[in-house]
User: Fold these one by one.
Assistant:
Number 1:
Amino acid sequence: MERMPCIGVFDSGAGGLGVLSACLKLRGGVRYYYLADIAHAPYGSRTEREIASYVREGLEIFKDLGADAAVLACNTATAVCVEEMRRAFPFPVVGTEPAVRLAERAGCQQALVLVTPRTARCARFRALLDRGRGCAFTVFSPPRLASAIEASLTEGSRLRLAEHLPRGQFDGVVLGCTHYTLVGEEIAAFYAAPVFDGNLGTARRLLSLAGRDGRPLVGISDHRMGDLTTNKCFTQSCEYKTKNEVIFLNSSKKYNKLQYEQMFSTRFGVEFRQIFTGGGKVF
Ligand code: DGL
């Protein structure tokens, strides 16, 4: 039997679940490994050197598992070291970036860009903003928002957005940290403005690179799955002959794998086959 394509999804915590969810909706028949580096979270307050070394360790685990591609489902890790990881690993490494271009294309004039403190200081992020046209971006880095979102999801603590977000009038909000996308609706309601994130774009890019024999799993020009195009897949539920598999890898002692598995199935309600690995490498 043909081996399923395997993709590693990496984040400092739960933020990458939004990217994973977008991938699962795009097609079936892929095995995903999810690795949350809870031990070293939040990445937003770490140094570049620290982040690069944690990311490298995570991708080494994917390599040992025979991954065909990996995604840094973390804007901070992408801003810090995606290029370095692309040079270091034999498989494609896809990054996640703040969706400032989407906000521009939607016609925003005054958009708020929410990123972690580390992302805000990265040259890659500044260059992304500098390439912009026509929209004035206000960058804000809530120092504890990612951790508060993580705690609200895993421990059920109450998230008070008003304690983390700046007041102001914006006609769009770019969610430049994957954790923020998990409360995208709440942030949209807070500002009464549309929010933009890179989850879908990242998933499409990833699946266009992750195929075997040079064939993309889902490509820009390869959108058909049976009778459905991938575009349609976003608006209606898809039935795939082959289900996806998701394996949550063990992380630190602080990380409760079971909790993540349950949180993911209840929160995203995506149908997939879960494989619960007893052992798994401890990261
Ligand atoms: N989810 C990560 C991102 O997209 C960062 C969260 C953290 O600070 O650990 O930037």
Number 2:
Amino acid sequence: MEKKLREEIKEKKRIVVKIGSSSLQHKETGELDYTRMEVLVRELCNMRNQGKDVILVTSGAIAVGKKAIGLSRLESEAGHLGVKQACAAVGQARLMMIYQKIFAEYNQVAAQILMTKDTIINDFNRYNARNTFSELLSMGVIPIVNENDTVATYEIGIGDNDTLSAIVAALIEADLLILLSDIDGLYTDDPRTNPDARFIEEVEELTEEYCRMGKESTGSDVGTGGMNTKINAARIATNSGADMIIANSKDIRILHRIMDGRRLGTLFKKHRQEEFDLVSFVEHLHE
Ligand code: GLU
């Protein structure tokens, strides 16, 4: 059964890959890790060359903006919403500039799509966003997605890119979502504090037990998402018909290894629920 699940990964056609801020930055300095970005882009272009639809959800706008403006950690942390939004405005453009440059090396066209909660809740916006994705994908373009942090306040913000990537996967009916993070996947407990914590390779069904593990094991300190937001993402993705894999971004070449059917990361098996309503889910996101 497990083998079959991984074999099926090879056949996936529409893949959303999410990378978090912690995976894009050098831990020591907070500066962008260009080598990693290059490997990421090469892997994505290669997936595209295999005829797959590829979508990248990337964080990093705020982090890159902070660096560009030269805000100290203290200044940016005390920072109110306006500071973050300004950082995002600077950082998002820089981030895209770097992505575009690397994608161009492979002659791959990339596009930018920025979203908020409203993109999903508002019927007109949702319809347009879905159309744009579908046009871009049929043209062979790789959409690069982030939250529109410059305008997103708490009320209209999705808040973290784990959730955003799952929402994107649901919106465009992707069949696979891969979350690249600084952890291997789901453990029964926090492996940093409990040596007996066991790694979980496959999650057949997202039971309460797994949700509890999500709360107890931890994620990174850089991005917004911990394991908890990843479990929430798994709920959205699997309910809407996509498998989801959490994988370690230490070596980004893990992407093609996963696509080759190797048993890496934690795989959450899809369970399409007809009654799952993306719009109402997003509407009640922070309640
Ligand atoms: N949208 C945020 C950014 O690009 C990151 C959110 C997250 O890390 O989940 O800076």
